[in-house]
Design brief:
The complex is a heterodimer of chains A (184) and B (144).
Chain A (H helix, E strand, L loop, with lengths): L3 H9 L3 H23 L2 H18 L9 H21 L4 H13 L4 H5 L4 H11 L2 H12 L4 H8 L3 H25 L1
Helix pairs in contact in A: 1-2, 2-3, 2-4, 2-8, 3-4, 4-9, 7-10, 8-10
Chain B lengths: L5 H14 L10 H14 L10 H42 L2 H13 L1 H32 L1
Helix pairs in contact in B: 1-2
The chains are: A mainly alpha (184), B mainly alpha (144).
Chain lengths: 184, 144
């Protein structure tokens, strides 16, 4: 088993097989993250490809001052956010969150809630409806298992903001889940 | 990703309940039970397909980008050489002795077929490189 440093050094020396290993190692991390942000299957594939091309291009500049996964996630986050800005104009964080909080207050039709097969699928469906920054922190923390500090490094959001978004997102999802269980 | 253990769920629960301003008494609170369910669901991988051919597609694209960059660099070098040649010829003509210039032209005239042969060889090597070597490289990238 080769260390990340060895793989990176092989890639810098032009070894494409080593680069393929790196892509396979991080494709889940990048795909989950990009998919949660972009929410369009075709675009997700293009953005993932763009992320790894950027990784290849800038790998010689990576000095192992952070974890490789954090650095790749940082590139994935930046690329996905840029893509979102391109397709849907400038992301307005405040409006996005305010809209959702208002949307959340409206009660959802119990039949539509019942139609969702299981808790996990229901939660993932509800995450799709959350504002982009909530989706980002939830995915990075719960799915990709990054720490608060690493999420701060990846997204550039202060640690306090990361925690706040995470707690609020979970609270919103908990309320949805409560409703779901009640009608089940 | 990996399933959460009891200790991790307990820590998450304490943090969340504290943030919600609720007493941290997991087990006797309904909220705690729902949060437990939520944390487990959040750690589950979403039912979505990871593109299995992503690594191959990325490697192929990187090779194409490298070839394009190389080709661009090659064209830039040729352009620079041509421009430098024209400029040096322009300045050289004004300094050169007409007798020397005439003998140079006569020399080219005598050996013109040698020059034509060299230029043809250079052109053929370039065509062969493009059609055989580079095509094999691109084909190899798909099969590996």
């Amino acid at each position: 088993m080769q260390t990340e440093k060895e793989i990176v050094s092989r890639i810098i020396n032009g070894d494409m097989a080593a680069f393929k290993i790196l892509v396979k190692q991080y494709e889940k991390l990048v795909t989950f993250m990009v998919n949660r942000l972009v929410q369009n299957n075709e675009d997700t594939q293009d953005v993932c490809q763009e992320v790894f091309i950027k990784v290849y291009k800038h790998l010689s500049g990576f000095k192992f001052q952070s974890k490789l996964s954090t650095w790749i996630a940082q590139i994935a986050y930046g690329t996905a956010v840029n893509h979102l800005k391109k397709v849907s104009g400038k992301i307005s964080l405040t409006d996005d969150i305010a809209d959702f909080e208002n949307y959340h207050k409206t009660t959802e039709n119990p039949e539509s809630i019942l139609a969702k097969k299981n808790t996990s699928a229901f939660i993932h469906q509800q995450i799709e409806k959350l504002p982009v920054h909530y989706r980002t922190v939830l995915t990075l923390y719960h799915l990709n298992e990054f720490s608060y500090l690493e999420i701060e490094e990846i997204t550039g959001m202060p640690e306090g903001t990361v925690k706040n978004y995470l707690f609020r997102a979970r609270k919103l999802l908990k309320e949805k889940l409560e409703l779901y269980i009640k009608y089940q | 990703m990996k399933a959460l253990n009891e200790e991790q769920i307990k820590r998450l629960l304490e943090e969340q309940l504290e943030h919600d301003g609720k007493p941290v008494l997991p087990g006797i609170d309904d909220d705690a039970d729902i949060y437990r369910l939520l944390f487990t669901a959040l750690a589950d991988e979403p039912a979505m397909s990871v593109n299995t051919g992503l690594a191959e597609a990325v490697v192929k694209q990187v090779k194409i980008n490298q070839q394009e960059a190389e080709s661009l660099r090659y064209k830039a070098i040729i352009a620079a050489v041509v421009v430098a040649g024209i400029l040096s010829a322009y300045f050289a003509i004004s300094y050169i002795n007409p007798t020397v210039l005439k003998s140079a032209v006569d020399f080219i005239d005598v050996y013109k077929w040698v020059f034509v042969f060299i230029i043809l060889c250079f052109g053929l090597i370039q065509i062969a490189d493009k059609n055989l070597v580079k095509r094999n490289l691109a084909g190899g990238s798909l099969s590996h």
